[in-house]
Structure formats: C-alpha cells, structure tokens
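Dear Dr. K.,

Following up on our conversation at the group meeting, I've run the structure prediction for Hydrolase from Deinococcus wulumuqiensis. I'm pasting the input sequence below exactly as I used it, so you can double-check it against your construct before we proceed with anything downstream. Let me know if the numbering doesn't match what you have in your notebook.
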Amino acid sequence: MTIKALFWDIGGVLLTNGWDREQRSDVVRRFGLSAEAEELHERHKLAAPELEVGRMTLDEYLEQVVFYAPRNFTPADFRAAMEAESRPNEAGLALARDLGQRWRMYSLNNEGRDLNEYRIRTYGLRDFLQGFFSSCYLGVMKPSPAIYRLGLSLAQVSPAEAVMIDDRLQNVQAARYVGLHAIQFVSAEQLREELAGLGVE
Ligand SMILES: [Mg+2]
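The predicted structure tokens came back this morning:
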C-alpha cells in the first residue's frame, strides 16, 4: 500500500511542547508562583482538557488557573511568557519543510486554540502543512481513537495510506491501534530513516 498522507504531532516534533510540565514550571518560577505550584497544577489538570478541546479560551483558562487570586502581573504578561516557551526544533522543521514539497501533510495535535494559532503563525507551519487537525478544532484529543479516525476522514485516506509522527509512545500506539503506520519521533535523522522505510523520501 502506498503512503498518501503524513500526520504530524507538533509539540516535541516540530516545536518544543506548547504548555507541558517543563513550560509550566519554568513560567511558574519566573512569576514567583513556586509556593502555589501544587495549587496551580491541580487547577491546570481540571481546566487543561477543556482548553485543548476548544471549549475554554486561554483567557478563561488563565482566570481559573492563575488569576484566582490577586497578582502583580497581568494576563497579557503571563500569556507572553507562555508564548515565549515555544521554540522551533530546527532539524524537525527542516525535514518537514522538505517533505512538504512532495507529500500531503497535516497536523494532528493536541493544543488550545490561542497557543495553537500563535505557534502556527510564528513558525510558518502553514507553509508545509495543508490542514490542522488540532484537538481545539475537532473537539477530541489524542490518544482517543476518534481523533485519528477523524483525521483519516478529513484527509480522505485509509489507515494503511497514512503515517502518524508523534514523540509520545501512547499516541503512537493509539494510532497503530486504528491501523495507521506510526513512528515515534526521537530525532530528525531517525525519522528520515524510518520514513524512507515506508517509501516516504
Ligand atoms: Mg508531542
């Protein structure tokens, strides 16, 4: 079976993670919130899924998770610090840009709408991804099998014609369960080799 489409995770593959554990602890420290880190984490755990499936805006999330008490900084300050945590993975981006010239490619990623769009715009992801199958638009998150099936339907390819690229093993296994080829991203070089094994060069 020939591969017809590539689905890309973004955080941990093309860019750093958007708002994962390391990004949160870094920002929490910089705003002097370390004493409240546990409270923030508990609040994050409840609000984050709603943010990522697009039922909560970033402002609403920040109101619940950070601004539940008076602060000496503004939501705009905090948001800017969140955005500054997003950095490119240059090797992953270079490989994706190259492949994008010959292959049909989409994102298939978990992210809230505001941060997703900041990251897409800032790192030119529209230049090589033809569509964004993001949890915030689809209303369902990885590793639910439903998001992989939606991605396949929206791209109009069968599971055997698709490759999922993701850094998280649980998501890779979920994609395989649905029948997609799936590669766990470790490095751009390793990804290039594994893709070549599927005839994607
Ligand atoms: Mg990831």
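Two things stood out to me. The chain has a mean pLDDT of 97. The radius of gyration is 17 Å.

Best regards,
J.T.
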